[in-house]
Specification:
With about 60 residues, the chain is mostly helical. It folds into 2 domains: about 30 residues, no CATH class; about 30 residues. The chain is about 75% helix and about 0% strand. It contains 3 helices and no strands. Helix 1 packs across helix 2. The longest helix is centred in the last third of the chain and has 32 residues. The radius of gyration is 18 Å and the shape is elongated. The relative contact order is 0.10.
Length: about 60
């Protein structure tokens, strides 16, 4: 599944682990390059969410 590029969360659900932590503790070493890619995705999502929040705040402030 890891070679098929299943993300860790999906592997966690398929394997039935109680926690994603268990999955990453067991298989995290098999995802070394991928963890950076997932971290970059999370950074991008957080950045986009911050821009959207600022835009909503700007519109609300403009309406006054």
């Amino acid at each position: 599944m890891i070679q098929a590029e299943y993300p860790p969360k999906m592997l966690h659900e398929i394997m039935g682990h109680a926690s994603i932590t268990t999955t990453l503790d067991l298989y995290g070493h098999l995802y070394p390059g991928d963890m950076d890619r997932y971290a970059d995705r999370l950074d991008s999502a957080a950045h986009e969410a911050g821009k959207a929040k600022k835009a909503r705040w700007d519109r609300a402030a403009f309406r006054g």
